[in-house]
Amino acid sequence: MSERAEGTIEIAAPPPEVLAAIIDFDSYPEWAGVQRAEALSRDAQGRPTDVAMRVSEMGFEAEYTLSYEYAPGGRGLSWTTKEAGGAIKDVEGEYVLEPSGTGTKVTYRLALDLAISLPGFLRRQGEKIAIGRALGGLRRYVEGGE
Questions:
Q1: In the prediction, which pLDDT does 119 show?
Q2: Is residue 68 predicted with pLDDT exceeding 80?
Q3: Bridge partners of residue 104, in order along the sequence
Q4: What is the 3-state secondary structure (H, E, C) of 50-87?
Q5: Adjacent-strand bridge partners of 63
Q6: Domain spans, the chain
Q7: Contact at 8 Å (CB) between 80 and 92?
Q8: Which CATH superfamily includes the segment(s) 5-143?
């Protein structure tokens, strides 16, 4: 697995509202740069635990299924790859949610293992795009700007 890339943003909403947006996988095509996201299984609380996704980025396509685990107290969630195909071999990451004044500090961490070879600068650029889209899109979605 490659090194983790990370970004942080402040969102003007409480952590439960931010978490609800993050696990609303049906909305991912609207804000997360994902073409398709479908919950395949749910836990006893109704939260998605396995989610199939399809992405197309920088001319590369991938389909994968991620398994989600939820942090205690609604403080975020993490994911690992259950299945992957196309340009991605493995995906790991997490959203960490921390109360911050009247809002939430959101930290997003991502590690991708690609099935294709890319020069380091292209990999870093792709990671920056993915993190920027995840955090910026989430903020716009939660705060109602999109």
A1: 58
A2: yes
A3: 11, 99
A4: EEEEEEEECCEEEEEEEEEEECHHHCEEEEEEEEEEEC
A5: 54, 85
A6: 5-143
A7: yes
A8: START domain (3.30.530.20)
